[in-house]
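Incident log entry.

Two folding requests arrived from the same account within the same minute. Monitoring flagged them as a possible duplicate submission, but the sequences differ. Recording both here for audit purposes.

Request one:
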Amino acid sequence: MTDTGIAGSDTTDTKFVNSESVVGLKDDRLINIKTVAHILGVCPRTVNRMVAAGELPPPVRVRTASRWYMSEIVSLLAKLKQCREKSLFQSGHTGGTV
């Protein structure tokens, strides 16, 4: 059985959580740095840099492990999407070819 990085997950045979399974997860799940990095499309070191810069919330410490609430990461992605859509709307870009 392979660890997906999600506390309480029973998913097997995958190294990382896939985008389809993210949608169905409870928001109170704790996820590790590798999973956060995979969801954001960055490396784990970049996750640490984003925390230091205040771009990501600080992790919850579980003994010596760092974990993030799935709800915080999903919320961050929703905010980023809103900002992107707002800037595209203001620039007049409708999603077609430029």
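Request two (distinct sequence, not a duplicate):
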Amino acid sequence: MKKTFKLTVVLLAVMCVFGGLGFAADVMGNLSSVDSDSKEITLQTGEGSEWFSYSETTVWPQGVTDPMALLSKQVTLSVDESTGDVTSVQLS
């Protein structure tokens, strides 16, 4: 009984630690549109058009203050897989 309880506590602790970590995926493509009102960007990838949300915390390439400056550029987005939000944008 004590072993089962200890194992349960350890498993719950591990799940709390790893459950709080966000996993990111990189997506490459051509930035085809930016909607600053809804904070969404559309990327043309090898799989077609994909849209992503961004926020005030999204990190843009150095010197970029307006995402519209990246229209028609090849970029790599880091996307938080748990939320679907773009965490950073880099020129490819």
